[in-house]
Specification:
By secondary structure, the protein is of the alpha/beta class. The chain is about 30% helix and about 25% strand. It has 10 helices and 17 strands. The strands form 4 sheets. Strands 11-10-12-15-13-14 form a 6-stranded mixed β-sheet, with helices on both faces. A 5-stranded mixed β-sheet has the order 5-1-2-9-8. Strands 3-4-7-6 form a 4-stranded antiparallel β-sheet, with no helix packed on it. Strand 6 and strand 7 form a beta hairpin.
């Protein structure tokens, strides 16, 4: 065979290799309401997707596909899918077959390259009728007139396909914030009158606006999103607390206003779908303004507690347009616990001991907030005590009478000095 023929064959092989679709990674995530399968691929493409019965299967045909990675074994606890297997039904076609447990409603789409990943094909599997996998039956609700716990929605950032920031030693933000969130949830659940709801309970991704929706479904009184910061300078350090900026609030009001026919319970139970545009805008602005004010109060309480355990990156509460802060009716904050890009703080983030420090600081800030702003109809509000100062009484005597410290009494009532007057009403902290 001549040199020209060899060169022609080599060129043909190179061209074929250049156009071949390579699958060099396959992984899955088990979320509460769906299963996500992710394929790392060499280039964007549109697969042929169809279902087969007897037995029930979902098939993905990848033209000119080549599998260069091992297929994962599916855990028995995963809903919908029994296993994943591959084959070549036709020349030049890679077929991935998902053996199914039940009928599914698939959603298939591609993702462009990001910071850490190349092209990806994503297959989300939902229940055929939109039902989430079976869960334990919820506890029966209390009678309408009964007192209730305050509900704190805790949102560990990132998750699943989104690892968040990654430290020099491989620490992933999604892992450490979930660990802190679980510890905070335990502290809250152990506090009488308080109950925690984790927005993300495991290693899976929850879309940002879905996080808000889950908090609203849980009828949360507060929303706390937990993150770890990152910066190109590895010496950057310290914690920070954010609330929604005015600009972010204005854009969110416009968004809700545009979709008010679908927003029936955004402003204290008042539907917007039957209001004219001016009135709807006024109601939304009032709701967002009040929510931002209480978010600011919560943020200040949490920031003061974080100052006690370490360095603060910003001396005051910061404002930003984070999507997870845009609930119009739930006071919301985002906490950056530490800089994962700082090697010293990365070590602390990996430490269970330091994770408890951050969890306890967040818990104290949330508890202090509710001591001042417990919603009506809750156990914490019912336990709130007030004392009308009689002539001749002193703050120290009142503190001793209720078994609280003088400092706690002064801080709880925002008193700058110990002078009080007869007839003045003091609020007595619980467990102070």
């Amino acid at each position: 065979m001549g040199l020209r023929v060899w060169l022609g064959l080599l060129l043909g092989l190179l061209m074929q290799a250049g156009w071949a679709l390579e699958v060099y990674g396959v992984r899955y995530w088990n979320a509460p309401d769906h299963v996500r399968l992710v394929l790392d691929v060499s280039q964007p493409f549109k697969p042929k997707v169809f279902g087969l019965e007897n037995p029930r299967r979902l098939v993905l045909d990848l033209p000119q596909g080549r599998l260069k990675a091992a297929l994962p074994r599916i855990d028995a606890s995963v809903p919908y899918v029994r296993r994943i297997r591959s084959g070549h039904p036709h020349k030049g076609v890679l077929r991935l077959v998902l053996d199914l447990k039940t009928a599914v409603r698939p959603k298939v789409f591609t993702l462009p390259p990001g910071d850490r990943y190349g092209h990806r094909l994503v297959v989300d599997l939902y229940g055929a009728k939109g039902a989430a996998p079976s869960r334990p039956a919820p506890k029966p609700p209390r009678p309408p007139q009964a007192l209730r716990d305050v509900v704190v929605a805790i949102d560990p950032g990132h998750g699943g396909e989104d690892p968040g920031a990654i430290g020099r030693h491989g620490t992933r933000e999604k892992d450490v914030v979930l660990a802190i969130a679980r510890k905070l949830a335990k502290l809250i659940d152990d506090t009488p009158g308080m109950r925690a709801v984790l927005i993300r309970k495991g290693d899976y991704y929850v879309p940002l606006r879905r996080r808000i929706a889950l908090a609203r479904q849980a009828k949360a009184d507060l929303f706390v999103s937990i993150h770890a910061d990152s910066f190109k300078n590895p010496r950057a350090s310290g914690a920070g607390v954010y609330i929604l900026s005015e600009r972010g609030a204005s854009s969110e009001a416009a968004r809700w206003l545009a979709a008010r026919e679908n927003a029936s319970d955004l402003v204290g139970g008042v539907s917007l779908d039957d209001k004219d545009e001016t009135l709807a805008k006024v109601l939304l602005d009032l709701s967002l303004t009040g929510t931002r004010e209480y978010s600011q109060r919560l943020a200040r309480e949490v920031l003061e507690e974080l100052k006690r355990i370490g360095r603060i990156h910003h001396s005051g509460v910061q404002q930003a347009g984070f999507v997870v802060l845009k609930s119009p009716d739930i006071p919301s904050i985002l906490v950056e616990t530490a800089f994962i890009s700082n090697p010293a703080e990365e070590r602390r983030l990996r430490s269970g001991k330091y994770q408890w420090y951050w969890a306890r600081a967040l818990h104290r800030g949330i508890r202090d907030y509710f001591q001042r702003h417990a919603p009506p109809g809750t156990y914490l509000a019912a336990r709130a005590r007030r004392h009308v100062i009689a002539r001749g009484e002193t703050l120290s005597e009142i503190a001793q009478q209720y078994g609280v410290s003088l400092q706690a009494l002064m801080e709880y009532n925002a008193l700058e000095g110990s002078r009080v007057r007869a007839g003045q009403v003091l609020r007595i902290p619980v467990g102070g």
